[in-house]
Design a protein that fits this description.
Blueprint lengths: L8 E8 L9 E9 L5 E7 L8 H7 L3 H4 L5 H12 L3 E4 L2 H15 L11 E3 L4
Parallel strand pairs: 1-4, 4-5
Antiparallel strand pairs: 1-2, 2-3
């Protein structure tokens, strides 16, 4: 399938310590960037959330505290994430209700100003 993209779109999948978008943290971030020419770039990073991963979440995604204890914190990878998603639209499955709010909260928590308002948001669950 050929997408008619004006600019790149980045699809997110975030695994977290729980389901509360305001207080839970990212433990794994996987992003797929689709460029207008159809090329793709994929990055996956484990993240030390600095808080415990709930047993319920670990049972779903299979990531436990020991798996991320030596991973970088979100603050340590924030610049990398920002550079990867720069000038891109954003998407995912249930991304408008979960992934992007969790990501925004992580940026707010470290005082990093990121504005998603100038981007198109594509949530395939809503399509």
């Amino acid at each position: 399938m050929q997408l008619n993209l004006k600019r790149p779109i980045v699809f997110f999948d975030i695994e977290s310590t729980g389901l509360n978008v305001a207080t839970d943290r990212i433990v794994e971030l996987c992003v797929v960037k689709v460029l207008p020419n159809g090329d793709t770039e994929i990055k996956t990073r484990r993240v030390n959330p600095t808080i415990p991963i709930s047993k319920e979440s670990a049972a779903i995604h299979g990531i436990n505290d020991e798996d991320v204890e030596n991973a970088p914190t979100f603050k340590e990878i924030a610049n990398e994430v920002v550079n990867f998603i720069k000038k891109c639209d954003l998407g995912g499955y249930n991304s408008n209700k979960f992934d992007l709010p969790v990501l925004a909260e992580e940026f707010l928590r470290i005082g990093y100003p990121v504005d998603f308002h100038q981007r198109k948001l594509v949530d395939v669950q809503q399509i």
